[in-house]
Amino acid sequence: MIPAQTLGALAGIHERLIQLVETLPARDVNRRFHPRLPAAGWLLGRAVYLETHLLRGHLFDDHDLSDRVRHFFAHDVVPDDALFAQLPPQDHLLNWALEIFDHHMTLLANPRFLPEHPLLEGGWLPAWLVQRHALIYEALLAVTQARTLHGEHDDHAVTQPLRAHRPAADSQRVDQGHYRIGAREGVITDCEQPVQVVELHAFRIQKRPVSNAEFLAFIKAGGYENTDWWDAAGQDWLARHERTAPWHWRRDAQGLWYGVGIKGPADLTPDEPVTGINVHEARAFAAWASAQIEELEGAVLQHEYQWETAARLGLLEDTGRAREWCANPFEAYDAYQAPEDPELATPGLDAGWNVQRGASLHSQPAVRRASFRIGVPADTETGFAGLRLVLPPGPAFWEY
After folding, report:
1. Residues 63, 67, 73, 78: is their CA dihedral positive or negative?
2. Average pLDDT over residues 277-299
């Protein structure tokens, strides 16, 4: 029997996916609003395909429906404008998704309909789908924000101006030692396994992610103009983009910064974690802070092992307000075993992407855990991600 909590979570994420696509104008459902984001209609179709392929295909050996749309939504399909033009209109897409989701919920809620299958033990597959759909939901929200950014917002007037603030060195120390990374129990993704024991040198890590006000200090110091802070990949990206601030930041008529969110323009909150940046911007900020702020000398972008260790020790604050870029590439752990079905594999593993840890304001409870990790292309700015710095360890308390 599938746990009622799992069924409720799956029904809830179904509803969120449907509602997001339902609220868009029909003309925008199959339209791309950012090079790094597919169309909203494709994302919904991807969720339906994935669920159909895994539930009907694995449990009932029924591949008819998923095979018919595989060329649109499978894991190895590269979504582009030509493909989006072939997608059904909004009403057809929504009716198709609703019918399939409802049918799947009926099957899962009635044990007599379900076969004995390893993927159903403990409600594993439905709970795994909740997590994968949660990531699609965040991508849909990013599409919604990108669509909002396409509108005109020149009439917004900032009422609470954002003031630059010197980046804080408020940090927690982690001593040298061996630490557990990854997970072995519960409904976890392939890239969290197997559990690793890693040796870390002592370090300090910022309690909180870098804030809007702190990132504004980088901007005001000429951070986007001074290429000294940018590595080779960052300089290449900077040369190809006219960027002077995070993706969704704009200036009003008085030259004051504000943000354009999912629901439209709003003043930027000073102590909220900065988001809308890619890993190149995160690294440039770290290089600037290290060179220009004495108490942050030696600061670098965090490694994911440092983040997970500090999170498990309860040393971090605001881990659920922004995803956080990490310095290291998104690679499989030692002794990793890929799932037999590639649809169960985490996208981007060993593809040269960068790791993001933590969760954003839009992340569902199912993906809020210390071991959860995703991979994201380095130039992606649409994933509600910011950064946190790691510092040299300094003396331990007993050395003072």
Report:
1. positive
2. 98
